[in-house]
């Protein structure tokens, strides 16, 4: 069976079981490994992609459900918020091991696209689905504020 | 800096560095017989006489240290310097810090430095076990020497070409300059000739003085920061190669269990499932070997998982099937109420306790924990033409290599272990059972590449758990509230049990993590260690036994302070006594993190200093709003001194928040202050997780929890609003201390002491869970 959708702006057709989670389809059939596996049950956010612009836990969404839709992964991020977030992540040296950070960045970009001036509560609400076991949370908050400032400037 | 992952992804296949030709099989067999190479140093450290005479603990590690510049540094004709990082990167920043040290002494331009990770090869690189907070501690000196030696070779080459004395030339930012004439050679122009020179002896090296450092002491950005931010960083989970198969394993639900029978007919019907393989379990001791079970090998991960779900397996649960955490807790607390093996005995604590004007006792309990790194264990192995190659997120590539060679019956030189980035480690990935599984499965598939993945449930249910402990402390106070006697009984299954299954006492390396090395100025001080049997695999977890020991001791100090009507911080300082090198009298078991007490004494002055520093920075004693409280704790671990002040706020409904944390850390000297800050921030929140909510419990021998929905770790909304890390400035007369772990132990007691200050409620059992809501 095949599923067709737009991946990082390009049309793709993957020969996969439509029930396969989007995460595994993208990692193993489209060859993009920037999106990570962490829990398999939408608990940790490591697998966050944007589906039609919405942050989505790709471990718990069937690839068949994105038929015809637009999917963005960390490799395909672009735009003002993405540029600001990725720069802030480097400037503030957010990552430690880095494994969860693509998911963190995807969630942060989605937050800033919808709420360009978030306060700490907005950040906590938008980011609490993304676990970081190295616990870079204090820097994540700071980096989101910094990215928000960059977008303004 | 770009990243060479040694990952087989795309074109980098086959680009692996060479493998040592030296066979050590005879030697290894002798050591493996007592439980694996790592055992020699980590579990059964040399007696104090050896440790005391070694200049650094590094010398006592398997294969010690290497400072040969040829092993670590290569310079291309284009001047690009490639530095080998032989320690595993798991978020601690070692791929930034180690090259920073080398590049500084080499006088290299940081923009022309590249980093590659070493394969597992300790003869070439020295010890590679990335644990014990010792990468910088053990390798600062060898890395400085390697960089200085290479710099000296470049200088000599240039001097020879110009026909001048070596003293007339000087290395300056990737160039050798003739000082008088200003003539220059770039490193790339000199490299080939320089490499043919003899490496200067250590005593001929001209190491920089600290004021000459350009990179050491600076918060240089992460080597892999850019790759991480764009999703290009490659971890063990991300290995890919042509024709690769994917595998998951159904493991015995109870430790020590076995497969009785398996019906795989439904599993084999799943499209993509290719083969079902039984993996033999490992009779005790567990060591780093696979638990056994049934593997499903498929053309993709999803198919492998579905195949595993479809297996019908009958298990024999084996000897640990009735392990029950609640019953075990009662048993351990009972043990802690009775006299036990004495492991330190100053003065006469028993008699003085009997005579004391006031007696206070308390019992503490801390559960098992799982490291739960965000990247679960993963490894890919292929075997081609008699050569086995493994790509994995391992903390100990060398023992991975020896164990796989042993398991496959191959020569050591025919096994290469490539270290990917680790998506967190925290001790879990020191044990390469998962890499051995992948090698077994590749062999079963005729050498085809097999990527073996652990799901989160596998990680939570089949781990090497942080021990579970009961700690009881009894103290006697005189009429003035001064502590005259202290008796601490610690009961916890030991990590040694994975090597010697009947071991029921903690090893010296566990007792030395905060129990027998407590540096209090109390004349009558006794430590005892009660028996506890292990019913699960026990393993290292970031800061290890320091967690229960520090929690009990630092909580109890605050309890005593409250009983004596004194300030927590003042009382802590009073117990520590005057600044001095603590003479720990009954210390034939003192481990001291494998280090000499001459180089790394237990320096009470430094511990006092971090207490005073953090109290000052945190505004100790300041007025806090209603419902808020301040708590303090201090602990020396991994030869580094840390004191933590937590401000907590407890709402009427018991909801807890943390407005502010201050930490003072004295790790001797500083390579990268940003990495130190980051490690301390992370350590605090790992301490927060275990204080608030993390618990692994067993029922009928099975782990109750399974994923992040019931094994709870801290999320951003629980994280402190601010964490201020105060680093004691470098003292280059001191040897470097550890950084990755020492921030963890003081956090939980500082928090529970703050909760007591805020609410009057004393937490003696972790996690806190809903105790504040009761």
Automatic annotation (TrEMBL), chain A:
Record-annotated 2Fe-2S ferredoxin-type domain positions: 1-77
UniProt cross-references to InterPro entries, sorted A to Z: 2Fe-2S-bd (IPR002888), 2Fe-2S-bd_dom_sf (IPR036884), 2Fe-2S_ferredoxin-like_sf (IPR036010), 2Fe-2S_ferredoxin-type (IPR001041), 2Fe2S_fd_BS (IPR006058), Beta-grasp_dom_sf (IPR012675), Diverse_Oxidoreductases (IPR051452)
GO molecular function terms attached to this record: 2 iron, 2 sulfur cluster binding; metal ion binding; oxidoreductase activity
Keyword entries, A-Z: 2Fe-2S, Iron, Iron-sulfur, Metal-binding, Oxidoreductase
Listed Gene3D superfamilies: 3.10.20.30, [2Fe-2S]-binding domain
Secretion signal span: none
CDD domains: fer2
Pfam families: Fer2 (PF00111), Fer2_2 (PF01799)
Top-level taxon: Bacteria
UniProt name for this protein: (2Fe-2S)-binding protein
